[in-house]
Structure formats: C-alpha cells, structure tokens
Amino acid sequence: MIDLFQCSPETGRSLSVVTERPDFPVLLVDDDVVFRELALLFLQEEGYVVEAVADAYEAQIRIQERHYPLILCDWMMPEMNGLELCSRLRRCSEPYHYIILLTSKNDEDEIVTGLNAGADDYIVKGGRKSELLARLDCGVRILIQQRLLEQQKQEILQQAQRDPLTGAYNRGYLTQTLVCELKRAQRYQLPTSVLLADIDFFKSVNDRYGHLGGDEALKAFLQVLLQNIRVNIDWVCRYGGEEFVIVLPNTEHKQALLVAEKLRAAVRAMTIQFENTTIQLTASFGLATYPDDLTCNKSDDVSCDQSDLDESPLDNLLKLADDRLYRSKQNGRNKVTGR
After folding, report:
1. Are 245 and 194 in contact (CB under 8 A)?
2. Which of 149, 165, 301, 306 yields a CA-CA distance of 20 to 30 A from 130?
3. 94 catalytic, yes or no?
4. Are 208 and 278 in contact (CB under 8 A)?
C-alpha cells in the first residue's frame, strides 16, 4: 500500500513536542478513503483522538454534536469543498476551530486563497509525517494559549464582578444584571422579587470578635443564603457592609415571602465557629416585587410618581426593599417585611 506520508529520513519516526494531544480531538475530513484511513491510524498511533468523515456535510453534523479543536480538511471534495466549510465555520465565532487544509495545491496564490477562506494553516499531501505532526502540534500550542487567555479573562471578569471577601457578586454586577433581569421580566410578563438582607447588630459582632470574626460571619452568612436559594437561578450580591441583595427571578411576592422566612430561620439557626468561641447571628429582610410593587401603594412611604417609577424600576425596587428592611429593624429585627 502506498504510504501517503514520508517518514523523516533523519529519525525514521515522527517528531512530537506536545503531550496534550489527547485533550485536543481532531476531525479529519477527506473523501479519499485510502488517505483517510491511513491518516486516521497514524494520528491515533501518535496519541491524537481522531474521528474521520468523508465529506463536509457530515463534518458539519459532527461539529454540531461535539467540539473539535483541530480540523484537518481536504480542499477538493465533491458538493462542498474545504474552502466552503472553512468559511461556514468562521461565520460561527465560538468555539474556535484550528483548521488545517489538506491539499495537493502548492501554488502561492491558491495557498493565500485557502488562508483567506479561514484556514489557519495548510499542508501539501505527500509530505512527511513529521511535518503533519509539527503543524498539528503548532495548532495545539496556539489552542493552549487561547485557553489560558480565556481563563485569565474569566478570572479578571470574576474579580470585577465579585466581592473579594465573601465571593458574592458585587454592587456593580447587581446594577448591570438586575437591569437585564427586569427587562426580561417586563418582556415576558414575569415577576421578579428582590430581598434586601441586613445582619442585625453587626457592629457588635465586630466589637466583640474583632474584624476577623466579622469577616468570618459575613462569609458564613453568604453561605447560608446560597444554601437556601435555587442554584443557577437566584443570585446574591453584597450591597455594602453587612447588607446583601438576593434576587429571585420569576418569583411572586407570596413565594418570595416564604423564601425570606426560610432564609431568616436558617440564619437564626446557624452557628459560626471562630477561634474558641461561637458566633450566632440574626438578620432582617425587606422584600419588593416587580412589577406589582412599582405602583402607588399608600402603605409604604415611597413616592407614587408613576413616571419616576417607569424611568428607574431598579432604583425604585431597591428603595422599596430598603424601606421595608428599615421597618423590619424598627419592629424588633430578625423579621421579614413585605407588603
């Protein structure tokens, strides 16, 4: 059988500098069954996880089912050629595919055409095995750097959105995300409830246990909140000091009252071990619900100018929750106040 790749005459075997090959699956797209099978076996022997298909249409189906960071694609194929597949994949920005064109073309203008179509690299069929591996490994190195950059981007984003002490979302995230939450609620006519929680007598905690004890109390308080709300639906941010905002999407006022009472009871029941002592907390809550509470309600000391409410539902919702939190404090703390 014809060997479609030549071995390196210097070593007699392929050259490899990357050990991460199994983490970067390869999709091989080629209508030549002999080339496809030989290339598949060779790449698998070299440690790559490879799937092979015979045409670009089947490749598109496989790509929808699974992400292939590396794609080896023949240029000349019936119906849809490799250039068209490259162009289609590049119209979808995420996730990124490192595409190497397999071609018998070696004309400079044609190579430029292939790269302009979206290919990252090319290799002429009939070349050495070591060259194929080197080009694939080059793609792996680039993809590794891309992953590292994405991780760093996410870390920077986390730092920008999170409170450094507790890990809760910060006020900037609240302002940005709650606006989107309320717009979604308005579009789909869904309720959104907001709880404003404040640890009772937190200054006394700091005075008695020091700021390290206060920090432990804040972190423990957040964990209790998170343990008693819906995962990946509800979310918590640190509003300032010992105040936290709990956002409950698609939650009516009565349901939110039940959640608030559950949170209040959980805070009251928890114990925090700090050094050789135990810290216990209570918290007060104020509840407001969009859109029902953003109307004139004479029972609350809130402005009933409807035009103002329409202009800033976020500010008005938080103000109403804050006023109701204040009433919880006035009524003895360790309470929930809604309508």
Report:
1. yes
2. 149
3. no
4. no
Q: What's the gap between Cα 242 and its chain centre? A: 27
Architecture of domain 162-337: 2-Layer Sandwich (3.30)
Nearest to 253 by CA among 291, 209, 281: 291
CATH architecture observed for domain 21-156? 3-Layer(aba) Sandwich (3.40)
Angle, alpha carbons 96-98-104 (nearest 5°): 145
- The tokens for 250 are 């698609």
pLDDT band, residue 18 (cuts 50/70/90): low
Report the alpha-carbon distance of residue 97 to residue 50 in Å, rounded: 14
Distance separating the N- and C-terminal Cα atoms of the chain: 82
CB contact at 8 A, 125 and 111: no
21-156 and 162-337 in the same fold: no
**Residue carrying the six token digits 């809550």:** 285
DSSP symbols for 31-96? S-HHHHHHHHHHHHHTT--EEEESSHHHHHHHHHHS--SEEEEES--SSS-HHHHHHHHHTS-SS-
pLDDT, tens digit (0-9, with 9 covering 90-100), for 234-265: 999 999 999 999 999 999 999 999 999 999 99
